Amino acid sequence: MGDKALLSIQQIGKTFSNGTVALQGMSMDIEQGSFVSLLGPSGCGKSTVLKIIAGLGNLTTGRVEWPTAQVDHLGRPDHEISFVFQEPTLMQWATVFENVWLPLRLKGASRRNAKDQVEEALDMVGLKDFATSYPRELSGGMKMRVSIARALVTRPKLLLMDEPFAALDEITRFKLNNDLLHLWEKFNWTVIFVTHSVFESAYLSSRIVVMAARPGRVVADIDVPAPYPRGEDFRTSNDYNRYCREASDALHSAMQAGDHL
Q1: What pLDDT does 208 receive?
Q2: In angstroms, what CA-CA distances link 107 with 58, 102, 114, 115, 124?
Q3: Is 98 domain-assigned?
Q4: Which of 34, 148, 200, 250 is the most buried (most CB within 10 A)?
Q5: Nearest one of 119, 122, 127, 236 to 174, comparing CA atoms
Q6: For 54-72, what is the mean pLDDT?
Q7: How high is the pLDDT of residue 116?
């Protein structure tokens, strides 16, 4: 774990044109190399936070700072950010290779020049043998792996993940949780992971940030100091159960806080 903040979110607010206040006074620092889950009820602004960090949405108030990075005139960091959405959003007419190549292609990299990076990304997620397959030929879990490979092909420092495993069955979800942690440990990314699942957040995270709805803001910040790597022994441990209870209690309080506004 790094001891410097990669990014600092300071008192951000977001009000949409219809008057909906999505975020208000939300602050948090994200340390280099951490795995942070944003946990909260539907409508609390978790996805909005990710989009603001990625530069896909504008702030109404507050600011996002990048203490350790150079930024351009728009305040965007000079290092790579990748985004994995809830749905794989793959091009159905393109092969797995072509889908993963897309971010590099948009930067002007030819197929030949991108070949090694694309194959490396596919190998990371266990799909090197499926480079010529089409999305229609893949399972839901394999499609999500392609989406993750597409995010990894640019070798990002910050990986934003918006409920990427929510639509998958439990066995596939557990497998991808383990694969994601393995990759995170190996490549020392910083991950911000949106989830509705207390159990998933406690298993994956070094830290759980709990948000309340209407408007979205931080109401609890929970450290999960259990060592990595984590596996089935951790899932059945007393420590894991304690972290789940703490996160569940905080989520319950967050939902009540939202109802009372």
Answers
A1: 97
A2: 24, 9, 10, 14, 22
A3: yes
A4: 148
A5: 236
A6: 84
A7: 95
**67 CB burial (10 A radius; 0-12, 13-18, 19+):** exposed
Mean pLDDT value of segment 193-205: 95
Between CA 35 and CA 186 the distance in angstroms is: 13
**Cβ neighbours, 10 Å, residue 71:** 13
The amino acid at 25: G
Residues across the chain: 261
**Amino acid occupying residue 161:** M
Q: What CA–CA distance (Å, rounded) separates 18 from 3? A: 40
Q: Report yes or no: 13 and 25 within 8 Å, Cβ to Cβ.
A: yes
Query: What total of structural domains would you count in the chain?
Result: 2
Q: Give the contacts of 43 (CB within 8 A, at least 6 positions apart).
A: 213, 214
Residues 60-73, mean pLDDT to the nearest whole number: 80
pLDDT digit string (tens) for 6-53? Answer: 899 999 999 998 988 999 999 999 999 999 999 998 888 999 999 999
Q: What is the pTM of this model?
A: 0.91
Instruction: Please check whether residues 141 and 28 belong to one and the same domain.
Output: no
SS (H, E, C) 121-153: HHHHCCCHHHCCCCHHHCCHHHHHHHHHHHHHC
Domain range spanning residue 33? Answer: 5-79+158-259
Q: Are residues 104 and 226 in the same domain?
A: no
DSSP letter string, 144-182: HHHHHHHHHTT--SEEEEESTTTTS-HHHHHHHHHHHHH
As a whole-number percent, the residues of the chain with pLDDT over 70 amount to 93
Residue 260 has pLDDT above 60, yes or no: no
